[in-house]
Design brief:
Order of helices and strands: HEEEEHEEHHHHHEEEHHEEEEEEEEH
Strand order of the largest sheet: 3-2-1-16-15-14-13-12
Distance between the termini: 34 Å
Helix content: 25-40%
Largest sheet: 8 strands, antiparallel
Amino acid sequence: MEDLKVTANGYDFKPAQAAMQRYIDNNLLSGISWAVMVGRDLVDVNCVGWADKEAQTPLRTDHIFRVFSNTKLITSCAALLLFEEGKLGLDDPIEKFIPQLGNRKVLRAGATSLDDTEPAKSSITIRQLLSHSSGLSYGFFDPGTVIFKALNERGVHDPRTTLAQMVDVLADLPLIYHPGTSWEYSLAIDVVARLVEVISGQSFDRFIQARILDPLGMVDTGFVVPEKDQGRLVAYYAGADLMEPMKPGLTRTDNAPFPGAYLRPIARLNGGGGLVSTLPDMVALIRSLLPGGKTLLKPETIALMMTNQLPEGQWIRFALMGPQPGKVHGLAGGMIQQPSPLDHPDAAGELYWGGVAGTQWWISPKHNMAGVMMAQRQMAFVHPFSFEFKRLAYEAVKQSAKVIA
């Protein structure tokens, strides 16, 4: 397990701690923990609030969280390990490895049925899968659409089905735009998990265990929490209103996303959102992508991972929120080209992503800092506490640099 001892002093994170305590006191979060690094040195590690609000169990750094979409970073790294070995090319068509995903159809603009399609102008590439520009959808965030209904009626998220069976569902459905022409958060990273299985000849969980989790000492990361450790799994809460994250109120929802989730093995090795992890494990993963020591991937691969993969002028856009100007996508997460009013001005160039329950990570090459946050409160895409914490973290590092100078 990664040692979370602070190794660099002189950084004032009291404002950040006070801000996070306010979210606990106002019944917006049950608990939150974090670690911030400058270089590979930890400059702050802290926990506030509860792992279990009802039982008044204080949150500790060894508590286990449902990391949801932070799983995507591990899946993307798995594919990039295969890329480094020459077993795949980023611009390879996906049908080279998964034939049934070739010869795609695309829904016409304004289509009201699955039959209203035209032939895709090009194949889906692995680069497009990693950057969510493949034309696939998710079946979570666009209720009322033709593809949302089709994906859910055909059980694309059924935890009793394998990644191979999920791909079979996707093979029979059209794309929502021509590959490479737009951006949509999607099942693409789950397809990447299946790609890893096909190329490696191993199940996805075994591949990441051997190539990522074991080498990095990520002892508490996996698709299942062992029975002996289930007491460390934090309680999961829903807010008063999914789309109004600052409305006070928490409702315990441990049976999400389905009853018994993470407590026993299931067929679906969800590469887009199925892992649990801890703060030390996530720090170990992020640290392995930072310069100054041994890295999981080659430095040139990490640099490529942190390069925008979208066409000029194309922004990340979520169906419920619309485009996010200034936000683009690399090969393992979003990127901030132009900080928004919610971001610290120094956040330009940052690679980041988060999970729907509030786990977050970010890497800022320009300012030689990185961070991990762990919370367990269901929200949509905007987690106000993470924006506030990151602003305060950037400021703490900036002020310390001024003092040193």
